[in-house]
From TrEMBL:
Protein name stated in the entry: ATP-dependent DNA helicase RecG
Presence of the UniProt keyword Acetylation in the record: no
Pfam families per UniProt: DEAD (PF00270), Helicase_C (PF00271), RecG_dom3_C (PF19833), RecG_wedge (PF17191)
Domain of life: Bacteria
GO molecular function terms noted in the UniProt entry: 3'-5' DNA helicase activity; ATP binding; DNA binding; hydrolase activity
Organism from which the protein derives: Allopusillimonas soli
GO biological process, one term: DNA recombination
UniProt domain Helicase ATP-binding: residue ranges: 276-443
EC number: 5.6.2.4
First-level EC class: isomerase
Keyword Cytoplasm among record annotations: no
Keywords: ATP-binding, DNA damage, DNA recombination, DNA repair, DNA-binding, Helicase, Hydrolase, Isomerase, Nucleotide-binding
Function according to Swiss-Prot or TrEMBL: Plays a critical role in recombination and DNA repair. Helps process Holliday junction intermediates to mature products by catalyzing branch migration. Has replication fork regression activity, unwinds stalled or blocked replication forks to make a HJ that can be resolved. Has a DNA unwinding activity characteristic of a DNA helicase with 3'-5' polarity.
Catalytic activities: ATP + H2O = ADP + phosphate + H(+); Couples ATP hydrolysis with the unwinding of duplex DNA by translocating in the 3'-5' direction
Name of the coding gene: recG
């Protein structure tokens, strides 16, 4: 405490401790971390351009004398100066400035400035340019600009990188054979070029990452990732799981009781999963299929096999509505066959929750369907043998690992089998690169009788026509969805938008039964609305994206997505998949507000041009990158910092090819390579 004021003293950190904390925020702790903390871009400070050669949009460095400088107060307080050389004049402006900067800009002083050139009221200008002394010798190499964090200057970061490079181990982790085969330059040479580009190095090659130094780094990153996946696969094969071989006729009874026949694609996938479940190491299979392709019934067969073998099955879905949809279908198929199905979500009341948890712990509940409530600490399984994750990319990596660990018994000696399901098909390049350790099954055909959905793009100025189409559809005995726009700024604002939209539509369509559903409703209320819609007691369901996955109402044949330009491509495809689930020709109307951004135009064009989920996924990958598909976006962990799935497919193929050679002939090199590149990332790849 301070004797004078009685207030607590704050212990100020030393500059060195503060610097260390900021470096650690970037994951920079050991010299090896700094070595692969590579520049985002480079600044060319090796040359001076004449002011007369400047043009708007350029980033340039110029040198001249200050003609005059002053603090101006219109339109707001700012520091203004004019720099002149023999070819012209350049305006300089600072909105935020210090007295020391004013002294630096004294009239007649020679200065060197660097910044982006813009068109101003009085000619060309730079706003907040970097200022230096005209007497400083020009560097003979490009200046690296590193990824940084608040309070950490480029100068401090460059100095820390320099110190690390002087002490770090830059020995090569690739054997000569691999270097020769793929024509790669040595690691230390690549690292030094990227941290200190020589004057002769092409600026464009560095920026576009086409220089041999970048090729080496991208190959290293892809190889490390592939080695880690191969190691994960080998480790999984070495783990033990209970072989789940059917002991009774539950599977045959299930097949006989279904009111439809499985498609050829479904039969193939059921057989693949059945073979996996019978093995003594954990299944780790991804089941992918387009919306409406029939993944749930495949999961039912997997569950039936596990239950027949005496194990429990947990099915976890990302939303309560999707979990309810699974409960509805699986209960209808399996409960008449004597299977005890339990339900566990966050919205369950205390008494029902305790009963469900007791049934799960004592083994009475054989199939447990739920949301993230399944991974709570208090939930104990009696004998969890199979975990099914629906829309697996919607869960964080940690959540997937938590559910899997619920089945470890005893003391981690036996692991549960795991089936991941996704209606967002994985593009080929992503499957090869990030799912190389997974077995992938694809349901590549829709059930018979399904017609492709017609997609229409309509400007919101034609809203009256859209309302007429809703009325026409309902008069034919069918139902419709009206999805409200995504409001990123606020969940409360999005809810208000849904409420307002519902009120407007109810007023505009007084002859129709219009209802509203959204994520903030109580579970029982949501269930009641969805059941009424399934039963045909609601004509038009106004909804937020809560209906994005899992809603299956065959009589719904019209989907209107308002402000479609605000949605992502995968989300639009999922929403469209809520219709087209019966034999009636279905229509999806993407209502947009002009003008559209370039990205929005690309998305809407993709939706108009194809209903193929695999093609949609490929285009979505181009636009968004792999994080969304893998469910690691929320982790903040970049999956590939340097390589790109768009442009480096050939390198990825070479890295995959090199894995077998490295693991078989050069295991020590492989281990050293992963230590350099994969620290802290293995769990993300193994989940």
């Amino acid at each position: 405490m301070s004797e004078e004021t009685g207030t607590p003293r704050t212990v100020s950190q030393t500059p060195a401790a503060l610097l260390q904390r900021r470096l650690e925020r970037l994951g920079l702790r050991e010299p090896a971390d700094f070595v692969v903390h590579l520049p985002l871009r480079y600044e060319d400070e090796t040359r001076i351009l004449p002011i007369g050669a400047l043009a708007p949009g350029m980033t340039a460095q110029v040198q001249g004398d200050v003609l005059h400088s002053e603090v101006q107060f219109r339109p707001r307080r700012q520091l203004h100066a004019v720099l002149s050389d023999e070819t012209g004049r350049l305006q300089l402006r600072w909105m935020n400035f210090y007295p020391s900067q004013q002294k630096q800009l004294a009239a007649g002083k020679p200065l060197r400035v660097r910044g982006e050139v813009r068109s101003g009221f009085n000619g060309l200008e730079m706003v907040h340019p970097k200022v230096g002394s005209a007497a400083t010798p020009l560097p003979d190499a490009l200046t690296p600009v590193y990824p940084t964090t608040d309070g950490l200057s480029q100068a401090s970061l460059r100095k820390a990188v320099e110190q690390a490079l002087a002490t770090a181990d830059l020995s090569d982790t690739l054997p000569e054979e691999v270097l020769r085969k793929y024509r790669l330059i040595p690691f230390d040479q690549a690292i030094r070029v990227l941290h200190h580009p020589p004057a002769r190095v092409s600026y464009d090659e560095l920026i576009e990452r086409g220089h041999p130094a970048w090729v080496r780094i991208k190959f290293d990153e892809l190889l490390a990732q592939q080695l880690s996946l191969a190691q994960a696969r080998a480790a999984r094969r070495a783990q033990k799981a209970r072989p789940l071989v059917a002991r009774d006729e539950l599977l045959e009874r299930l097949r006989a009781s279904l009111p439809f026949r499985l498609t050829q694609a479904q039969e193939r996938v059921v057989a693949e999963i059945s073979a996996d479940l019978g093995r003594a190491f954990p299944m780790h299979r991804l089941l992918q299929g387009d919306v409406g392709s029939g993944k749930t019934v495949v999961a039912a067969f997997a569950a039936a096999q596990a239950i027949s073998a005496g194990s429990q099955v947990a099915i976890m879905a990302p939303t309560e509505i999707l979990a309810e949809q699974h409960l509805h279908k699986l209960s209808a198929w399996l409960e008449p066959l004597g299977v005890c199905v339990a339900w566990l979500t966050g919205g369950l009341s205390g008494k029902l929750r305790r009963k469900a948890m007791q049934d799960i712990a004592e083994g009475r509940a054989q199939l447990i369907v739920g949301t993230q409530a399944l991974i709570q600490d208090k939930v104990d399984f009696h004998s969890l043998g199979l975990v099914v994750l629906d829309e697996q990319h919607r869960f964080g990596v940690g959540q997937r690992l938590q559910l899997s660990r619920k089945g470890e018994a005893p003391a981690g000696t036996l692991l549960p089998h795991q089936l991941n399901m996704s209606a967002t098909p994985i593009p080929r390049t992503l499957a090869m690169t990030f799912f190389a350790d997974l077995d992938v099954s694809a349901i590549d055909a829709l059930p018979p009788g399904r017609s492709p959905i017609i997609t229409k793009l309509i400007a919101d100025s034609r809203r009256a026509e859209v309302l007429d189409s809703v009325t026409a559809e309902v008069r034919q005995g069918r139902q419709a969805y009206w999805v409200c726009p995504l409001v990123e700024e606020s969940e409360a604002l999005q809810l208000q938008t849904a409420v307002d939209t519902h009120a407007r539509l109810a007023e505009a369509l007084p002859d129709l039964r219009v209802a509203l559903i959204h994520g903030k409703m109580a579970p029982a209320a949501k269930q009641e609305v969805m059941q009424a819609f399934r039963d045909g007691r609601i004509d038009l369901l106004v909804a937020t994206t809560v209906i994005e996955v899992g809603v299956d109402v065959p009589n719904a044949s019209l989907m209107i997505i308002e402000h479609a330009e605000r949605f992502g491509l995968a989300q639009l495809h999922q929403l469209r998949g809520r219709v087209g689930r019966g034999s009636t020709q279905s229509i999806c109307v993407l209502m947009y507000q002009a003008p559209l951004s370039a990205i929005a135009r690309q998305r809407l064009r993709a939706m108009y041009e194809t209903v193929d989920g695999f093609e949609i996924a490929r285009r979505d990958l181009e636009q968004r990158g792999p994080g969304e598909f893998l469910g690691v976006r929320q982790s903040g962990q970049a999956l590939l910092r340097f390589a790109s799935l768009d442009t480096d497919e050939r390198l990825a193929a070479q890295a995959r090819e090199a894995v077998a050679l490295m693991r078989k002939a050069f295991p020590d090199h492989a281990e050293a390579h992963m230590r350099r590149w994969m620290r802290g990332k293995e769990d993300f790849l193994r989940s």
